[in-house]
Every structure is written in structure tokens, then in C-alpha cells.
Specification:
The complex is a heterodimer of chains A (about 525) and B (about 230). Chain A is α+β, with helices and mostly antiparallel strands. In chain A, about 35% of the residues lie in helices and about 20% in strands. The chains are: A alpha+beta (about 525), B alpha/beta (about 230).
């Protein structure tokens, strides 16, 4: 076999060592599961972030089909100090796509581990492998006529529950806080051990997907947004399909209405009158989701002026803010809660309530109603056509579910985005007490100047929000190190102490959430030397 | 009806429609005899706009009537059909020019299906000029230069950045000033031609008869093989 010569290698790994590792990977996985050719790697290198693709180019991709193979892979990685970046379905789009956090990392793609191991319709639980998609689960539930409902993020059909939960993503049903609904993980640790969380370590246990906490420390959270292990199975709870379901929208005409919307909504959410993860989408999120395009309204570069937004509202009937929620339960429960909800909004006197009967098949209502009832669709990808150019980075600060706070965040974000000539395309996803304020920073990657602008804009968003005491709950791989700094040095010290204990060779996704023994230790020792000298 | 049958029928209808457009421009393409050796019959996925029609003209100039055409819709049904097709185990080469939303989905499904991608282009046309950002493999060697010569000959201003996957070299940057105010969708015809001939001996790119002014907007071009 000819010697492989790579333009991209993992950090600190020589070509000779890399080739030796590749031979071992081939022996373990078979030739077809070790991808090295440029045309095999390009599909993993389509990024939407504000840097060149090269900054996130993988050196190779491995595909595994069994847990034993994953164990074998980490063994080889330890031997040759090969860093691996694991993906399940890799549909992380505005949070970094499938590309690794650092150039040269080897991607471990678990798409072929796609068995639905068990769905228990009585206990309403599921146990799946990393490659299982929501569409697969949806088809299974439909084919077997199970009275169950899924919760998923907007890429729905093509994304999967394991990856989304491990990244602490959310959905739009009452089970929308996915990590809260997770129950039992199987994790391959860096030393090759298999660790099962919760009740999973008890021989013969049938409560692994039933009871989360097990005994002693509960470590499940340690493996989310982290690089301490490779999750090869995950259990989660499924919502029983309710006999009655009533989605609705409330349309608000003015941007300033956000204060009252949130303050009316909060008690309804905390009391579980409205049980699902409610969405409040602004006009541009609505427009994008309805597949409208900016160039149909304005040709000038820069942000879309408010006058145009008002015209869009007038033409389309969309609001400045558009709230989507749903009621679930028996018809009697839904009827009672509907009265409470409509009374609350009518008392306010501003919102225009739209029911499913009134909306019919109109978008974006239709896809929102589907998402809130666990029916997959791909409608929200229309956002990528709003401005076009392939740039998308999700900026997602957490806010209190308090009107004044949401207004403050919205104004701050809009001001910064407009300063850089970009649009405020946003939605709030409402938990009982918190809001995920998700802003899609859309820009044109064919323009070097606009790409630089988007990069500077994203940095300023992070900086200015941090000054106000805000931080994001999740971020794309370009900015993960930066965001880790927002959460303070002690947290980072603890995270790196855990990393040293569990993965001393730093082979699992170094750089994930800013956890990287090589760079962190170097920075710390440089800092400590400089303070000793002063 | 099976997924495959639906797929074929849709393709036939669209292929026929595109053929009408092409026949009007054939005189300009007379004498073009690109090499087809080594190229499997290709399917083209294109949107319904002027740039996509020009892309198709360029692609057909190289691949002729063997090129089947399909226009993806935005629904889940099309994407699941397409994924099924990619996973069917039959060798297939798909080229295309789509909007960002459709291309994001098509390319991601291609990744999951284990497809090989030799060319991924991001293109923007606005205000009489075009911008192109390419990520490609050695198979596309010479294509960026050829495209830039074509754009220059057409008189439209352009910038073109080319990154070679796996290369340690920095991105190649090419640019040309606008020599006349009348940009057109020639760029898309050029890309269509290049993708249809990818991997063959480079030939002179033909100019096709493209009507109208430069369509503004954003597009993604690709060559996918399974």
C-alpha cells in the first residue's frame, strides 16, 4: 500500500504516526470505514462559520458499527495520540455542522450505529443508538401505531435524539427540554471502559430508562457539551400522545409588546397551563421560515430597515412578534386551559389569536403546529434563503422569562447586529423560567468583507452580552473557547481536572466547550510564570 | 407508486422542459465536443430561476440529453426520496445548482449516505458582479482558472476564492473587473459546463445564449457521487 501523505494532520501528530494509526484503524474497521480522500472529507467540511473551511478540516473520518469498535478506536487513539471528534448525525448546522472544532481532528461518525434498541409503549421510554434519526423514530411509531409523541428541534427529520440531547438542544412539545427527559446513557470512556449512568450499572436492572438518578453521584450531565466520553446509547422518555391537541398563534404588531407577551406567558408556563416550549419568533424569523427572501424587499446591502419590516408585516399578516404554543390533554382539560389562556391574552387587549382552523395550511403556522405535535418537517431551512450566502451562526444567550429582560436583550442584539449591517433574526424559546434567545446571524460567506464583519459582530455580541451578565447556553465551534471564558476560571479548572482524570492523553474532542489539556495547561503555566515574574 | 418510480417520472417531466430551453441555444454550442470518458450519466438538481436554467444549459452543452433533470421541492418528501436514492447502492453522479436551503439539505443527506463530493461552490450575484467560493478536490484542478477566464471573457466583474480540500496551501484568490455593465447568468452556464465535465480532459468552455441580466441571489453548486 502506498504511503498516505496528508495536507491536514492532527495537531502534534507526524505523518508517520498518522499512517501507523490509519493502518490500525483499517485493520479494526475495514478499509471502507476509514475515509481519507479529499472527496470523502469535503462533505464533513461544509461549515457555516465565519472562517475558512480549512480551519475546521478533518484529517480523516472513521465510521464504527459496534461499541467494541468504538473501544478499539479509543485504544488506537491513545496509542498514537490521535484526537477524535465524534458526531452522531452531525446536524448541528448553526452550532458548527459536522466539522471538528480543531483542524486535523479525526471525525468518528456514528451514523451506522442506528438501531432503535427498544421502545416501551407502556412505560413511554426509548433506548437508541447515536445514528438514529427522528424520522426513523417517527416512522417506527407510526408503523407500529404506538400512542407516543416525539419532541425534536427544527431540523427534526434528519437530526437525532442522542446528538441533540448531548448538545442540550430543545424541542417544542411539553417534553421539549431534552436533557431533562434523558434517562440512562452508555458511554465509552477514553480508557475503553463502558460506563452506564443511572441504574445502568446494576446487573439485570430493568429500570435503566425508568429512574434517572441511580445511587451516589449522578454524572449524566458531565457527558453533555463535553469531551469526557463517547455516548453509544441513550435512553429517554416519550410523551403519550394526548387525545386532544390545540395549537395556536398570538400575533403582536409592535416590537415593544415583547415585555407584556413574556409577562403574560410566564405564569401560564410556570403553572403548566401552557405545557410546551413556547416560541416567540420575530418578523424576520417568520419571514425566513415562510421562505421569503430579503432581495424581494430591498436591494441595498446592510440591515433591513424597520420601514421594510413594517411593510412586510402589512403585506404578510405576520406580527413583529409571533407566539406559538399548544394545549394538550383530554378535550375537557384543553377546553378549560383554552379559556384561561384566551382570557389572559384578551385582558391584555393587543394580541390577535389565531387557531389551527383559522390558519389552515398557511406557513409558518403549519410547520409550527407540526413541530409542537411531533410531526417532522424541514420548513425552517428557509431561513438560509433569507439573506443567502451560506453563513449562519446561532447566538443563543439565556434570559430570564421576564419581559423587561427580553426587551433589553432584543434591543442590545439588534443594535449590535445593525451596527455590522446584519439582521436581527430571532426567536425566544420559552421554558417556565428561562428563555433561549436564539438569534441566527445570517451572512454571505462569498464576501470576505461580510464574513469578517459577521465574525466581529459575533464577538461583539458575546462581549457586550457578557458585560450585562448574560451568556450563551451553546455556541458554534469557532467560539467555544471564547464562551468557556465567560463562565469563569474555577469552572474551567474543574473541567480540566476532570479531563486529566478521565482522558489524560487528551484524545476525545480536545477544544470541545473550551476543554483542551494542551492549550489550557499551556496558557495557565504561561500566566503563572508571568505573575511569578511580576 | 414506489419511491424510485416517482423519482424517475418527476425527472422525465423536468428533463423535457429543460430540453426546450436548451434547443433554442444550440446554434451557439455547435462544434462543442467535450470528452465524456469516465463520466457516468449525471442527474442535475436545479431550482427554477434564470441562473439555474443557465447552469442547465452549460451542463447540457457537455452532457447532452443524457442529463436527467429534477427540480427539488422544499418538502420532506423530496428529501426522503433523494436520500433513498443515494442509499440504493447504485453508482450515481449528481450535479446541481440550488438555493442555500435546498443545498444545505441535499449536501447533508449526501454526507450521511457516504457520498463523495469533488466540488462545492457558493455563488452570489449582485449589482453587476459575482462572487464565488469553491471547495474542491484535485479532480477540479484547472477549473477555477477556466471559470475565471470565462467570467473575464463575459465581461462581468467577479471574485473567486478556491480552497483545495486537504491542502496546506492558502486559498487561491482570483478576481476580474467589470468590463461592461451587462452581467448575465453566464457564470452559471460556466459552472454547469465545468461540473458536467469534471474529471475529463478540460476543453474550451462554450458561451451559451443566456437571456436577460445578471440574476441576483445566492446559489450553491455541487458534484456528488455515490
Amino acid at each position: 500500500m502506498s504511503e498516505q501523505m496528508n495536507g491536514v494532520l492532527p495537531r502534534g501528530v507526524t505523518q508517520k504516526k498518522f499512517n501507523a494509526a490509519v493502518e490500525k484503524f483499517r485493520a479494526l474497521l475495514g478499509e471502507g470505514n476509514v475515509l481519507l480522500k479529499a472527496e470523502q472529507l469535503i462533505p464533513y467540511n461544509k461549515i457555516m462559520m465565519s472562517v475558512e473551511n480549512a480551519a475546521h478540516a478533518p484529517s480523516a473520518v472513521l465510521t464504527a458499527t459496534t461499541v467494541e469498535q468504538v473501544q478499539g478506536i479509543v485504544k488506537i487513539c491513545n496509542q498514537y495520540r490521535i484526537p477524535i471528534w465524534t458526531i452522531s448525525t452531525g446536524r448541528n448546522f448553526g452550532y458548527g455542522t459536522a466539522a471538528p472544532v480543531q483542524r486535523g481532528q479525526v471525525i468518528l461518525d456514528l451514523k451506522k450505529m442506528n438501531r432503535i434498541i427498544k421502545i416501551d409503549p407502556d412505560m413511554c421510554t426509548a433506548l437508541v443508538e447515536p445514528g438514529v434519526t427522528f424520522q426513523q423514530l417517527y416512522d417506527y411509531i407510526e408503523e407500529n401505531k404506538l400512542p407516543l409523541m416525539l419532541s425534536f428541534s427544527a431540523p427534526s427529520a434528519i437530526a437525532g435524539p442522542l446528538g441533540n440531547t448531548m448538545d442540550r438542544g430543545v424541542g417544542y412539545t411539553p417534553y421539549g427540554e431534552h436533557f431533562m427527559m434523558q434517562c440512562g446513557m452508555e458511554v465509552v470512556l477514553a480508557n475503553g471502559d463502558i460506563y452506564r449512568t443511572g441504574m445502568g450499572g446494576v446487573k439485570g436492572s430493568n429500570t435503566w430508562q425508568i429512574f434517572k438518578w441511580g445511587y451516589g453521584p449522578t454524572l449524566d450531565g458531565l457527558f453533555t457539551q463535553a469531551n469526557y466520553g463517547i455516548t453509544t446509547k441513550m435512553g429517554f422518555w416519550l410523551m403519550p400522545r394526548p387525545p386532544a391537541y390545540k395549537p395556536f398563534e398570538v400575533i403582536f404588531e409592535n416590537e415593544a409588546d415583547i415585555v407584556e407577551i413574556v409577562d403574560i406567558l410566564r405564569p401560564l408556563r410556570i403553572a403548566q397551563i401552557i405545557p410546551n416550549a413556547v416560541v416567540i419568533a420575530n418578523i424576520l424569523w417568520e419571514a425566513g421560515s415562510a421562505h421569503l427572501r430579503r432581495r424581494d424587499y430591498i436591494a441595498e446591502p446592510g440591515h433591513t430597515p424597520d420601514l421594510i419590516l413594517e411593510k412586510m408585516q402589512k403585506d404578510s399578516g405576520m406580527g413583529a412578534w409571533n407566539l406559538y404554543a399548544a394545549l394538550y390533554g383530554t378535550q375537557e382539560q384543553v377546553d378549560v386551559n383554552w379559556k384561561i389562556v384566551t382570557d389572559a391574552f384578551r385582558k391584555h387587549g393587543k394580541g390577535r389569536i389565531v387557531t389551527q382552523e383559522e390558519a389552515g395550511d398557511k406557513q409558518p403556522f403549519k410547520y409550527r403546529a407540526e413541530l409542537m405535535s411531533g410531526v417532522p418537517n424541514l420548513q425552517e431551512f428557509g431561513l438560509y434563503n433569507w439573506r443567502g450566502g451560506g453563513g449562519s451562526m446561532w447566538f443563543a444567550p439565556v434570559s430570564e422569562a421576564r419581559g423587561s429582560e427580553c426587551k433589553k436583550q432584543a434591543l442590545l442584539a439588534k443594535r449590535i447586529l445593525h451596527k455590522y449591517g446584519l439582521d436581527y433574526v430571532a426567536e425566544f424559546i420559552v421554558g417556565p423560567r428561562d428563555m433561549h434567545h436564539v438569534i441566527d446571524v445570517l451572512y454571505d460567506r462569498t464576501s470576505e468583507e461580510e464574513t469578517r464583519r459577521a465574525d466581529a459582530c459575533f464577538s461583539e455580541l458575546l462581549d457586550e452580552f457578557e458585560k450585562e451578565g448574560y451568556a450563551v447556553y451553546r455556541v458554534n465551534t469557532r467560539f467555544q473557547e471564547r464562551v468557556a471564558r465567560s463562565y469563569g476560571p474555577v469552572k474551567r479548572d474543574v473541567e480540566h481536572a476532570i479531563k486529566r482524570a478521565l482522558d489524560p492523553n487528551n484524545i476525545l474532542a480536545p477544544g470541545r466547550s473550551g476543554i483542551d489539556l494542551d492549550t489550557y495547561e499551556t496558557r495557565r503555566s504561561a500566566k503563572s510564570t508571568s505573575s511569578d515574574e511580576s | 407508486m414506489t419511491v424510485d418510480r416517482r423519482f424517475v417520472l418527476k425527472s422525465m417531466v423536468l428533463g423535457g422542459a429543460a430540453g426546450v430551453v436548451l434547443s433554442r441555444s444550440m446554434p451557439l454550442l455547435a462544434g462543442v465536443t467535450p470528452s465524456h470518458s469516465g463520466i457516468r450519466p449525471a442527474l442535475a438538481l436545479v431550482g427554477g430561476g434564470a441562473a439555474e436554467a443557465a447552469f442547465l444549459q452549460g451542463a447540457r452543452a457537455a452532457a447532452g440529453t443524457r442529463l436527467r433533470v429534477q427540480q427539488p421541492d422544499r418538502g420532506l418528501g423530496f428529501m426522503l426520496d433523494f436520500e433513498h436514492r443515494l442509499r440504493a447502492g447504485r453508482p450515481m453522479r449528481v450535479i446541481g445548482l440550488l438555493d442555500d436551503a435546498a443545498a444545505t439539505l441535499v449536501l447533508d443527506l449526501a454526507r450521511s449516505a457516504g457520498a463523495r463530493i469533488h466540488w462545492l461552490g457558493q455563488h452570489t450575484g449582485e449589482a453587476g458582479s459575482t462572487r464565488h467560493r469553491l471547495l474542491n478536490t484535485d479532480l477540479a484542478e484547472g477549473c477555477a482558472r477556466q471559470l475565471s477566464r470565462h467570467l473575464h471573457a463575459c465581461g462581468a466583474g467577479f471574485t473567486l476564492d478556491e480552497e483545495r480540500q486537504g491542502s496546506a496551501a492558502p486559498a487561491r484568490q482570483l478576481a476580474g473587473p467589470a468590463r461592461n455593465g451587462a452581467g448575465s447568468a453566464q457564470w452559471a452556464a460556466g459552472v454547469g459546463y465545468l461540473l458536467a465535465t469534471l474529471g475529463t480532459r478540460p476543453t474550451m468552455m462554450p458561451r451559451v445564449s443566456v437571456q436577460g441580466t445578471l440574476p441576483s441571489g445566492s446559489f450553491v453548486s455541487f458534484s456528488i457521487e455515490v
